[in-house]
Design a protein that fits this description.
The protein has one domain: Rossmann fold (3-Layer(aba) Sandwich). It has six helices and twelve strands. It is an alpha/beta fold.
């Protein structure tokens, strides 16, 4: 899914990581751990091809970063969208099907069935038809999660999806991720300050630290990092 060879990340030719090598297999669920400024969000943006790397090689789904973005969904930490006051979360998910094409998608029975399935999967069926602007932060994030899955991505990137959620909303979002892991065949990379709450659902971790960037098969090797919260 992802291969890094002698990769260095940074901004404006200023490196923020040393060289590192990683290989992430298909369909793995990976937690990205490290203190603020260590390069976590920079890594996700480099995976998308939004930020150029300083040096080294970065292969995403078998090609250069940015070339396979139709197969990647990304939910950033902060997101602002302007929607019509009456537009529902259901309509937002529906309109995102093949969103890279001009115009709205043809609303077929198959597409409606697919949207219904995703809305149920993320646990948003109780409010999906309400105006999106009236939803709580946790409800909106589950709609965003359904939106991220509508085009059947091979890789899902989440940057602090649990931030600013109350404990109840946080638990509902984690339950939605569990169901996705059970029913969807895709890879996941997630940054979270609440990693201790989702660690048991992940396959491995990438640790960004002062000593470099390395792959950890268990959470044990990064417990010393206070960022993890364990």
């Amino acid at each position: 899914m992802i291969v890094c060879k002698d990769l260095v990340l940074g901004y404006d030719k200023n490196p923020i990581t040393p060289k590192f090598n990683l290989t992430i297999e298909d369909n793995q669920w990976i937690g990205i751990i490290g203190k603020n400024g260590a390069g976590k969000s920079t890594f996700l943006k480099s995976v998308l091809g939004v930020l150029p790397t300083i040096s080294g090689e970065l292969s995403i789904l078998g090609d250069y970063a940015g070339l396979n973005n139709k197969q990647i969904s990304y939910i950033p930490q902060e997101r602002e969208i302007n929607l019509a006051d009456r537009m529902s979360g259901y309509s937002l998910v529906m309109s995102s099907y093949n969103g890279w094409l001009l115009g709205l998608p043809f609303i077929s029975k198959k597409l409606r069935s697919q949207v219904d399935e995703l809305i149920n999967l993320v646990g948003a069926s109780g409010y999906a038809h309400q105006p999106f602007v009236t939803l709580s932060g946790g409800q909106k994030k589950r709609i965003y999660l359904a939106q991220a899955l509508i085009n059947k991505p091979k890789l899902l990137l989440l940057d602090e999806p649990l931030a600013d959620l109350d404990p109840h909303a946080k638990q509902h979002f984690i339950e939605a991720l569990q169901k996705i892991h059970e029913h969807q065949n895709l890879g996941l990379m997630i940054i979270s300050h609440d990693m201790h709450e989702i660690a048991c659902h992940l396959d491995a971790f990438i640790h960004f630290s002062g000593n470099g960037v390395h792959y950890c098969a268990t959470i044990e090797c990064v417990k010393e990092d206070s960022y993890v919260g364990i």
